[in-house]
Amino acid sequence: MPGGEDRDQSGTQRIEAFSDGVFAIAITLLILEIRVPHMQGGGDPGLGRALLGLWPSYAAYVFSFVIIGIYWANHHSIFHLYQRSDHPFLLLNVLFLMCVSFLPFPTAVLAQYITDPRYRQASVEFYVAGLLLPAITWLLMWLYGSSGHRLVDKDLDDGYIRMMTRQYVLSSVLDSSALIISFFNWTAALVVSVGLTILYLLPPKKPVYTSDN
Q1: What's the rounded Cα separation, in Å, for the pair 190 and 200?
Q2: DSSP characters for 51-63?
Q3: 82 by DSSP, 3-state: which?
Q4: What does the pLDDT profile of the chain (213 residues) look like in tens digits?
Q5: Which of 30, 34, 50, 99 meets the CB 3.0–4.6 Å disulfide criterion with 57?
Q6: How far is CA 188 from its chain centroid?
Q7: Proportion of the chain in helix, strand, coil states, percent, rounded to 5
Q8: How distant, in Å, are the alpha carbons of 122, 172, 186 from that of 192?
C-alpha cells in the first residue's frame, strides 16, 4: 500500500489496540445484560418457558452485537488509510469509543421494555438515539482525519475520499431519520435501523490511490 513506511511510525497501532479492547468490552457487556431467570418452584411455568420469554433480550443482544462488530470491522479497515494521528484525532476516537461502549445500556433498556406498551415507545427512542451517537462521532472522526489529507495517506484519491464522506454523511442522516421516525412509529424506526445494519454488512469500498490511476 502506498505510504506504508510512514504509517508504521505514526503511532496509530496503539490507537487500534486500545480501540480493540474497548470493542471487546462493549460486546462482553451485551451478554452480561441477559439475566438468568430465577425459578421459584411451585406455580412456575418451567425453565424452558422462562428462557423462551427472554426473546427480547436475545434479539437486542444479536442486533447490538452485529452493530458493534460492524463498527469494529470498519474501524480496522479505515485505519489502514491513516498515516498519522494527533491529539484532536485521539480525542475524537475516544469520543467514538465512548458512544460504542454506551450501547449496551440502551440495548438493555430496549430488551426490558419492548414488550411493555407503556414504555415501548420511549425504549425504542432511547435505543435508536444510542445507535445514532457512534454514527455521528464516526463521521466527525473521518471528516477531521480526511480533510485536506490531514491524517490519511497523501496518495489517497480525492474522489475516493469524497465518496466515503458522502457515504458516512448519508449513514448519519438515515440514523437521524430513524430517530425522528421513532417519535411517531417505533416499528418503522426499528425497520429502518435493521435495514441500515444490513447495508453496513456489505464489504467496504476498496481504497483508490493516485498512483493506481
Answers
A1: 15
A2: HHTTHHHHHHHHH
A3: strand
A4: 444 444 444 568 889 999 999 999 999 999 988 888 777 765 566 888 888 888 889 999 999 999 999 999 999 988 889 988 899 999 999 999 999 999 999 999 999 999 999 999 999 999 999 999 999 999 999 999 999 999 998 889 999 999 999 999 999 999 999 999 999 999 999 999 988 888 888 777 888 888 665
A5: 34
A6: 20
A7: 75, 0, 25
A8: 17, 12, 10
The pLDDT score that the predictor gives to residue 172 is 93
d(CA 40, CA 50): 11
**With contact defined as beta carbons under 8 Å apart, do 142 and 156 qualify?**
no
Query: Position of cell 435495514?
Result: 195
Write down the domain spans for the chain: 4-212
- DSSP letter string over 3-27? THHHHHTSSHHHHHHHHHHHHHHHH
Cα distances (Å, whole numbers) of residue 197 to 67, 98, 141, 161, 186: 7, 20, 20, 22, 17
Q: Which residues contact 63 (CB under 8 A, 6 or more apart)?
A: 107, 194, 197
Helix residue ranges, H only, 33-119:
47-52, 55-78, 87-102, 104-113
Amino acid identity for residue 38 in this structure: H
83's grid cell:
498515516
- How many Cβ atoms from other residues are within 10 Å of residue 44's Cβ? 12
Beta carbons of 90 and 84 less than 8 angstroms apart: no
